[in-house]
Design a protein that fits this description.
The complex is a heterodimer. By secondary structure, chain A is α+β, with helices and mostly antiparallel strands. Chain A contains four helices and three strands. Chain A has a three-stranded antiparallel β-sheet with strand order 2-1-3. The radius of gyration of chain A is 24 Å and the shape is extended. The chains are: A alpha+beta, B mainly alpha.
Chain lengths: 210, 74
């Protein structure tokens, strides 16, 4: 019963990953194509597409009601948001972001594809192969890479765009958004990949023992 | 590899085929082929013993140590 359930899970994972991979390819081509034709080459109508997470100080007074008649004052001092520049920004900057996005999407597709190939090898009942160890390494390094690229992109936006922002009521102070969770997950996968490599070596040694 | 397998030589001397030897030793032909083609990473004593019994030879007749040129120079 458990085995049938596991087999079904693997088949489902295979189908879901296949769909995600195809959708990601289409989305990547669409997004990068739109960016290339618009902000980079200036052929089509466009917005800059530079959506950037920002943090800012505000001073918004409000109230919160508890129970039937207990109302207390509430103050928002700090908020997070996204800003987007609707008009062209310097072409050099857009080329830099286009290249960063190209690497970013490339890494995402590589991760999904590697994961899909691992699932396929599990479906074929042959997951303990050297290639899967390499695929796990690819996934781990790509996850760390994706996060670092996002951090770099945010850093560039922060250094270049933030000094140019002027709002009447808020003061923007950006932070570099690098998810430490993703980097830790990447490191964990790296350790698993190494354990997997040793396991494959042991399996091969066993296989070639007569 | 510094251990050479002379199984084919012994098989030729005893005029025995791979299939026959595999059957008499009690392992698969594929496994014996791994040993014969020097792809094996380890040999069990039980396998070695059975091969020696069938071929009526010593382990040294099948396994030969070849010193590396680099080590020899040192």
């Amino acid at each position: 019963m458990q085995k049938i359930l596991n087999d079904k899970l693997v088949v489902t994972a295979d189908i879901v990953l296949r769909i995600i991979l195809y959708l990601s390819i289409v989305a990547s081509i669409f997004f990068l194509g739109k960016m290339l034709l618009g902000p980079v080459l200036g052929i089509t109508e466009y917005k800059s597409g530079l959506k950037t997470p920002i943090e800012f100080s505000v001073n918004e007074q409000g109230t919160a009601t508890f129970g039937s008649n207990q109302t207390v004052p509430v103050n928002i001092e700090h908020a997070k948001g996204l800003f987007q520049i609707d008009r062209p920004v310097p072409k050099t900057l857009m080329v830099v972001f286009f290249l960063l996005n190209l690497i970013f999407f490339g890494l995402i597709l590589w991760v999904i594809h590697s994961l899909w190939m691992i699932v396929q090898s599990v479906r074929q009942k042959n997951p303990f192969i050297v290639l899967n160890g390499r695929r796990l390494h690819i996934i781990a390094f790509s996850m760390i890479g994706i996060e670092l690229i996002q951090g770099l992109a945010n850093l560039i936006k922060m250094l270049y765009l933030e000094p140019r922002l002027n709002f009447e009521t808020i003061i923007v102070h950006s932070k570099i958004h690098v998810s430490i969770h993703v980097i830790i997950a990447g490191l964990v996968i790296l350790v698993i990949a190494e354990a997997f490599r040793i396991g494959v070596e042991l399996k091969e040694e066993h296989h070639f023992t007569v | 590899m510094s251990i050479r397998i002379n199984l084919d030589v012994m098989m030729a001397r005893r005029k025995i085929s791979l299939g026959e030897l595999a059957e008499q030793v009690g392992i698969t032909q594929a496994n014996l082929s791994i040993l014969k083609t020097e792809k094996a990473k380890a040999v069990r004593f039980t396998t070695l013993e059975a091969v020696c019994r069938v071929l009526d030879c010593q382990p040294g007749d099948i396994l030969e140590f070849i010193a590396d040129e680099k080590n020899e120079n040192e």
